[in-house]
Design a protein that fits this description.
0% helix, 8-stranded antiparallel β-sheet, mainly beta, 8 strands
């Protein structure tokens, strides 16, 4: 399934935005293109292509075509 426009994908406390998203039902993954950004709390990751594996709760961020990968990550606070 393809979505275009102001795409927003949420999963628990994670929010992903992009201009285009392609959802693959069988693999349970979403590929984000067009200025994709994933945020979780204060953490923020940007790239050219972000693939989110919904079952695993993991993502792959790729640069390319002159785009760089940017990540701002904050360590968890231990009390």
């Amino acid at each position: 399934i393809e979505f275009e426009g102001d795409v927003k994908v949420t999963q628990q406390d994670r929010l992903a935005t992009a201009n285009k998203a392609i959802f693959y039902q069988k693999e349970q993954k979403v590929m984000l293109q067009g200025r994709p950004v994933v945020t979780k709390g204060q953490d923020r990751i940007e790239g050219n292509l972000i693939t989110i594996y919904l079952k695993d709760g993991r993502s792959i961020v790729e640069g390319g075509n002159g785009a760089q990968v940017h990540a701002v990550l904050f360590p968890e606070k231990k009390e």
